[in-house]
Amino acid sequence: MRRAGAPDKAQDWPSAACFGRPMHNACATPLRWGLVGPGKIAQRFADALSAVPGSRLAAVQGGRPSHAEAFAAHWPAAVHHELAALLADPGVDAIYIATPHQAHAAIALAALDAGKPVLCEKPLAATAAQAQAVVGRTAERGVFLMEALWSRFLPSWQQLRAWLEAGEIGSVHTIQGTFCFRLPYDAGSRLYAPALAGGVLLDIGVYAFSLAQWVMSAQGERAFGGFDVSGVLAPSGVDLHVAAQLHWPGGAVAQFVIGFDASADNACRIHGQRGTITLHPNFWESTRVTLQRRGEPERTLELPLRHNGFEYQIEAAAACIAAGQHENAAIPHAHTLAVAELSDAMRRRLGVRYPFE
Ligand SMILES: NC(=O)c1ccc[n+]([C@@H]2O[C@H](COP(=O)([O-])OP(=O)(O)OC[C@H]3O[C@@H](n4cnc5c(N)ncnc54)[C@H](OP(=O)(O)O)[C@@H]3O)[C@@H](O)[C@H]2O)c1
């Protein structure tokens, strides 16, 4: 059911030259988004659309109809009460998925089958098997898919990558970070619910592991070589606090502590043979980055967000879709699958099992 809004007139698409980097208004890509899962983070996405010229929220679909209607009243959009209706809406060009984790894969598969490009909140799926199915369907259908790891497109993360690629700190040997905050135990929260694929590994571990993988890929290390993990489980049985060490074949290690039960400084430091780069707290939303080369004065850059930080990933996805790309070079499907497999393996080691596995 379309309750409001009408399809836009056809618009000219920008050239493939838009692909790759954040566009900063230089190359607006018109796109009408359909949003599935109008909860907390979906508000940030809807808000960011106002900072992306040409992109707008066209329609929403959610769990409880009253919630979807309230959301669409605040962020003006049509409301559909069934996923099939949203996917069949000719006024929707692309789908953003922001439901709890266990629902991501089925919604992504349905969207890809409907020929709609997908930007899916992290993690792409609750298990590696589900993630493989979704990535496989993207290849079959030839439709764009990206895990919404928004941090990779932030100016601070782009600066980090530029310094790494320029060899400013030499070969990376150690990555260290924390992602910890206090979240009182609540059996009703999706974060603690096994049936909703809760736990720290899938909710916040993906940021840490994905950052480490991205850093190491800048120096040609493609795959994780192995890991050590220890942790504490919540009363519901999901992972509450995890200490993880990742190894690469060349000898580099990444050490992260992630938890819902403690606070920490939440910075990330990348140590190389010639220096250190720090993504200042919170590393996943950092606006400040420091380069410290041995024997030289440190250099700190303030890199504020243009809006709320989601605008960069929306622009990156829109540019890929306009260019007919099936994946974004900054978040290739292989990276998503590698982190999904790592998360699965860590959960198994910790004894966490979801009821649907
Ligand atoms: N990128 C980031 O910074 C960031 C931050 C937080 C979360 N996230 C990710 O965003 C996702 C959602 O998290 P959240 O905290 O926003 O969750 P949330 O507040 O619980 O919102 C989830 C929304 O999905 C709806 N929903 C549940 N099952 C659905 C289904 N099968 N089909 C359609 N809609 C469904 C819910 O409906 P009701 O209204 O009926 O409950 C609710 O509106 C997760 O993947 C999470 O990891 C990302």
From TrEMBL:
Kindly indicate whether the keyword Oxidoreductase belongs to this entry: yes
GFO/IDH/MocA-like oxidoreductase domain: residues covered: 157-277
Q: Does the keyword Zinc apply?
A: no
Which Gene3D superfamilies does the UniProt record give? Dihydrodipicolinate Reductase, domain 2, NAD(P)-binding Rossmann-like Domain
Q: Which residues form a coiled coil?
A: none
- UniProt keyword annotations, A-Z: Oxidoreductase
Which Pfam families has this protein been placed in? GFO_IDH_MocA, GFO_IDH_MocA_C3
The Gfo/Idh/MocA-like oxidoreductase N-terminal domain covers which part of the protein?
31-146
Similarity annotation: Belongs to the Gfo/Idh/MocA family.
Q: What is this protein called?
A: Dehydrogenase
This chain's source organism reads Rubrivivax gelatinosus (Rhodocyclus gelatinosus)
